[in-house]
Amino acid sequence: MDIAIVSLFPEFFSSVCSTALLGRAISKGILNVTYHNPREYAHGHRKNVDNIPYGGGVGMVLSIPELDACLSSIPEKGRILLLSASGKRFTQSYAKELAQEERLTLICGRYEGVDARICELYDIEEVSIGDFIVNGGEVGAAVILESVGRLLPSFMGKLESSEEESFSKGVLEYPHYTRPASYKGYDVPEVLCSGNHGEIARFRREKQLEKTIENRKDLLQNAILSREDRAYIEQIQYPRVSGNIYIGLVHYPVLGKNKKSIAVSLTNLDIHDIARCTCTYGLGGYYITTPIQAQQELCNTIVEHWREGLGAQHNKARSKAMECVYVVDTIEEAIESLRQSTGTAPFVIATSASAIPTLSYCDVRDIAKERVILILFGTSHGLAPEVYTLVDGILPPIRYIGGYNHLSVRSAVSITIDRILGDYF
Ligand SMILES: C[S@@+](CC[C@H](N)C(=O)[O-])C[C@H]1O[C@@H](n2cnc3c(N)ncnc32)[C@H](O)[C@@H]1O
Fold first, then answer.
1. Ligand 1: which of 111, 124, 133, 147 to mutate, judged by most atoms within 8 Å of the beta carbon?
2. pLDDT digits (tens, 9 = 90+) for 50-75
3. Of 60, 75, 251, 336, whose CB is crowded by the most CB atoms within 10 A?
4. How far does CA 100 lie from the centroid of its chain?
């Protein structure tokens, strides 16, 4: 592969390109690196390549004529990349893509950056090596050289060495150990010395998943995960958090059409669907609050039918979902019930289609690591103002920017819970 590096400081690369595996690959001709310095195209005795920014502001800008002349002197440029903190994030899959190319040109920025018109003159991809600022693009170019170079055939001894690495399959790598088996009281995990390849593979996979959850949960969204992987992630990530979250479906006091506090009747769909959501996400339970005796009796009849009656015989899954339902008079009774069953008062959260939020979904997940939470959902036109005197926080409305956000309470419960416990982030 041919790599042309456009840099004001080509000497930066002398040790990078002569050391270890990269040095060997270059001396063997697996990688052919050439250097092109815009300063050689500068005029005047000071050979300036920078100038002050139009529009004002601090620092200088790498000017376009010298950079353009330098770039156009490279006969075959291949894909052109400009190292820039505001570029597309450089990743392992980006590196894999670049490793398929025959040639690349890497432009190293300096000062506050390069004159933006260079990206209009040439077909240039801006690429960032991470969310931080370094002094110049040379470090980034070295990163690309290292990561793309090692993916080239014959760069490394065994192809597997790069196949097993972090990011290759969307997760981070498992930890490595070598001799001695015991060091300062720290032993190598027993399973790695067992010779049982199945157990070793399982152990390593679990460590990969644990490490990815701890350090880079975002990667899991695109990772290829087996059923076992998913079960393991669920098992290590959610048990305590999800079990600490309870739903409260409020039928009084809620707002009626005329904006007065009223009591409304419950619906069969809300009983079923919210119970199913509670069960699906492994929540602690689901309180249905209504002060109307006849409504409580109706609700209990429905719940009993599915929990233990004829319904249970026909639909075991529904019977299981109904186990999490509790019918109470008031929100206060739900709070008291949780205080008695868990030993502490729950952190109470209101949801609303319009109220100003005081908490994020992430906050709720964090609070649930330590405390029991009761999330209140209003029926009719939402929770009445007096409910807000009982709450410790308010979650952001769902889709409040678009104008129309009249979801059924069942949908709102599912979306809210998924935002808090959603599979991997
Ligand atoms: C001091 S930096 C300029 C930072 C720029 N003013 C900004 O805020 O994004 C000088 C040069 O370093 C390189 N650089 C700095 N951080 C980088 C990053 N995270 N990824 C890639 N290149 C970077 C770019 O080539 C940039 O033009």
1. 133
2. 999 999 999 999 999 999 999 999 99
3. 251
4. 28
Reading the block at residue 87, the tokens are 């570029």
State the Cα–Cα distance between residues 151 and 163, nearest whole angstrom.
9
Instruction: State the CB neighbour count (10 A cutoff) for residue 343.
Output: 8
Q: Assess contact for 118 and 83: CB atoms under 8 A.
A: no
How far apart CA 406 and CA 53 sit, in angstroms, is 49
Pocket test for ligand 1, best of 7, 81, 134, 145 (most atoms within 8 A of CB): 134
Residue 207: which of 239, 236, 248, 182 has the closest Cα?
236
Cβ 162 under 6 angstroms from ligand 1: no
Distance, CA of 216 to CA of 218 (rounded, Å):
5
Token pair belonging to 257: 């059409």
* Residue of minimum CA distance from atom 16 in ligand 1: 133
pLDDT confidence of residue 281: 94
Cα distances from 276 to residues 165, 178, 216, 221, 321, in angstroms, run 40, 48, 30, 24, 5
DSSP class per residue in 161-187:
HHHTSTTTTSSPPPP---S-SEETTEE
State the pTM of this model: 0.79
User: Which one-letter DSSP state was computed for residue 400?
Assistant: -
Cis peptide before 396 (omega within 30 of 0): no
Tell me which residues of the chain have a pLDDT lower than 70. 157-164, 424-425
CB burial readout 238-273, b (16+ within 10 A) else e: beebbebbbbbbbbbbbbeeeeeebbbebeeebbbb
Contact between 303 and 271 under an 8 Å Cβ cutoff? The reply is: yes
The β-bridge relationship of strands 285-289 and 325-328 is parallel
Using one digit for the tens of pLDDT, what is the confidence trace for 364-393?
Answer: 999 999 999 999 999 999 999 999 999 999
Q: Is 55 exposed, middle or buried (0-12, 13-18, 19+ CB in 10 A)?
A: exposed
CA 133 to chain CA centroid, nearest Å: 22
Å from CA of 73 to ligand 1 middle: 24
Which residue segments constitute the domains of the chain, with CATH numbers given? Answer: 2-162 (3.40.1280.10), 182-237 (no CATH), 241-421 (3.40.1280.10)
The alpha helices in 91-192, defined as continuous H runs, are 92-99, 118-121, 137-149, 160-163
